[in-house]
């Protein structure tokens, strides 16, 4: 909420008074998310500060939370004008992370042969022959220049 409201405005809201004020203590953990904003996690606590254990857990969580941010940011860069299925896009996303067909199959609970078939379909739709070319073609920044007719 700190991105939208000042602390004073937030505390004046009904949502705050019904849901958060009864908790007595709130501990905020702010995670930088890009150059212009942060994500704030609010924790309920019986203490006025994080313990050393709390700090350690949050430090362990930070790279994972950043990875989630990167994943969603990366999805926004994917071209939407290509006629790929959701599953084909998902598999190409894992290919981009360097996963093998067997690893992707295990992650998605499907057969490695199914992964291969989705990749073959993707190659055909994208007009490429390799995993690397498919991923490059899928990204907006790798879109071919438009030619005038």
Description:
The chain has two domains: about 5-75, no CATH class; about 85-140, Arc Repressor Mutant, subunit A (Orthogonal Bundle). Helix 4 crosses helix 7 and helix 5 (about 100-110) packs across helix 6. Mean pLDDT is about 75; it is low at about 140-149. The protein is mostly helical and about 150 residues long. The protein has seven helices and two strands; from the N terminus they run H-H-E-E-H-H-H-H-H. It has helices at about 5-10, 15-20, 50-75, 85-95, 100-110, 110-125, 130-140; strands at about 25-30, 40-45. A two-stranded antiparallel sheet has the order 1-2.
Share of residues in helices = 40-55%
End-to-end separation in angstroms reads: 49 Å
- Structural class designation: mainly alpha
Number of helices: 7
Low-confidence stretches: 141-149
Integer average pLDDT: 77
Strand order of the largest sheet: 1-2
Radius of gyration: 22 Å
Topology order in helix (H) and strand (E) letters: HHEEHHHHH
Q: What is the approximate shape?
A: elongated
Q: Count the domains.
A: 2
Total E-strand runs: 2
Biggest sheet descriptor: 2 strands, antiparallel
Fold blueprint:
Blueprint: H1 7-12, H2 14-20, E1 25-32, E2 38-45, H3 52-76, H4 86-96, H5 101-108, H6 112-126, H7 131-138
Antiparallel strand pairs: 1-2
Helix pairs in contact: 4-6, 4-7, 5-6, 6-7
